[in-house]
Amino acid sequence: MRARPRLTVLSGPSGVGKSSVLAELRRMGPDIHFSVSVTTRKPRPGEVDGVHYHFVDLPEFHKMVANGELLEHAEFAGNHYGTPREPVERALAAGTPSLLEIELQGARQVRAAMPEARLVMLAPPSWGVLVDRLTGRGTEDPAVVARRLEIAREELAAEPEFDEVVVNADVRSAATGLLNLVVGPVPGA
To answer: What gap in Å lies between CA 54 and CA 32, rounded to an integer?
Structure first.
């Protein structure tokens, strides 16, 4: 008998490779519901409403919060972000595992709203590797990098709050490890 599908929450510090691991997981083609967040920020060039985000204005976002329509929500850099509850619950009711990629505070909110959710931390192989990844980009001001590293240290310190840890030393291996947690071991993966 197959276990009831559950919600899996992926979180980890900036620079750990969440986007790369999720892109690889999507390429693997599993039957997983990938949540699409709601945001109040304006779409960037090439972003499609309902694919990258659900773009809403601030009054609509506040209405969603007040009506309990979001599993979690937060403000970041002057914009609001949240995870719609209904699509996640619909996927789970249909027997499809659901996966969210959110930051630590959001993961804590989901744990409070859905205690049965599995929280997975994506971790770097070492602190030095994470520092290299963030400084190696060369695209951000050193003060911004320093702040990201400070936040990363806090996020990694929260590891005991998570049910599982997947180390991203190799994107394919990390994606396979995450896939096994979300849907169970996959033959040939």
So the answer is: 19
33-59 pLDDT per residue, tens: 999 999 999 998 999 999 889 999 999
Contact 161, 103 (CB under 8 A): no
pLDDT digits (tens, 9 = 90+) for 60-101: 999 999 999 999 999 877 899 999 999 999 999 999 999 999
Consult the annotation and say whether 13 binds a ligand.
Answer: yes
Closest residue by Cα to residue 120 from 10, 7, 2 = 10
Burial class (CB in 10 A: 0-12, 13-18, 19+), 108: middle
12 has binding-site annotation = yes
pLDDT at residue 4 tops 80: no
Is 16 annotated as a binding-site member? yes
**pTM here?**
0.87
Q: What domains can be seen in the chain, in order of their start residue?
A: 7-183 (3.40.50.300)
Phi, psi of 170 (to 5 degrees): -145, 125
Any known ligand binding at 177?
no
Q: Is 19 annotated as a binding residue?
A: yes
